[in-house]
Design brief:
8-stranded mixed sheet; globular; 274 residues; alpha/beta; 38% helix; 12 helices; Rossmann fold
Length: 274
């Protein structure tokens, strides 16, 4: 299916935010906000958006410095600030009661949004969300201040290679094709992303603590791949215990990239939950 995207950019806190907006003709339909994971973009929702937009208003965005959003070397790339940027975008679009769908790191951003503005969020769907990660070690943070450290980041990511990364995040390797490789590689054609990632190494404060999670009362659905090698299912089960109003679903023969591997099942579960 060829998807024609209504694409936009807006400046939020001095940085361009790229987003795609699919308004439903019925303005009373729920608004779903799709937030991608680390080193990813709205591209990771390409199989899910066509299904969701038939029933909801769908807003998908690229978190800076990823995708087509800005790659400022002045922005603070903490989870708290990234959540604040999303909140500002929602205010700009006059959306004041939405449901969040967050994949991997996007799950932590979603939880941060719910922590900051609980009245803004109706429900949260966490797709293989990251959880319980600490701040990076101090020596690495200090090293990020060395000149040309961004070249080390670039070399490290290049050494991993796109195929190795994709084989790690999907269980069914047969879905990996040239379109998929190109889609996940495209954002890295701009070298400024490596400078921005260097700043993220300094700024990322770590995931929300169990104590913080237990204070989030927003109704949440957790969907996990049983073969997830990036964020093991044990993390999902632990998040389920710490989030007081959550339910948990696991998908067989599924890895970390849940929206790519099982879009029909994910759509079905989201529809039941919403």
């Amino acid at each position: 299916m060829t998807l024609v995207s209504p694409q936009f950019k807006v400046n939020v806190q001095g940085i361009d935010i790229y987003y795609e907006l699919y308004p439903h003709k019925d303005r009373n339909k729920p608004v779903l906000v799709l937030i991608h994971g680390f080193l990813s973009s709205t591209f990771s929702y390409r199989r899910l958006i066509p299904l969701l937009k038939e029933e909801y208003t769908v807003l998908a965005l690229d978190l800076p410095p990823f995708g087509r959003s800005g790659k400022s070397t002045k922005m603070t790339y903490s989870y708290q600030n990234l959540a604040h940027v999303v909140i500002k975008l929602l205010n700009h679009l006059n959306y004041f009661r939405v449901s969040l769908v967050g994949h991997s790191m996007g799950g932590q951003i979603s939880l941060n949004i719910a922590k900051q503005c609980p009245d803004l969020i109706d429900k949260i769907v966490l797709l293989s969300s990251s959880g319980y990660m600490k701040r990076l070690p101090s020596p690495l943070i200090y090293s990020s201040y060395f000149p040309f450290f961004h070249l080390y980041v670039k070399r490290h990511l290049a050494k991993q290679g796109i195929d190795r990364n994709l084989y790690n995040v999907v269980h069914d390797h047969s879905i990996i094709d040239e379109d998929m490789r190109k889609g996940y590689l495209e954002p890295f054609s701009d070298d400024n992303i490596f400078r921005a990632l260097t700043r993220m190494i300094r700024h990322r404060e770590g995931d929300l603590t169990p104590e913080e999670l237990r204070k989030i009362e927003t109704s949440s659905l957790l969907i996990w791949g049983q073969e997830d090698k990036v964020v093991p299912i044990s993390i999902g089960e632990r998040l389920h215990k710490d989030l007081p109003n959550s339910s948990f679903i696991s998908l067989t023969k599924t890895g970390h990239l849940v929206p790519e591997e099982k879009p029909l099942l994910v759509h079905e579960r989201i529809a039941q939950f919403i």
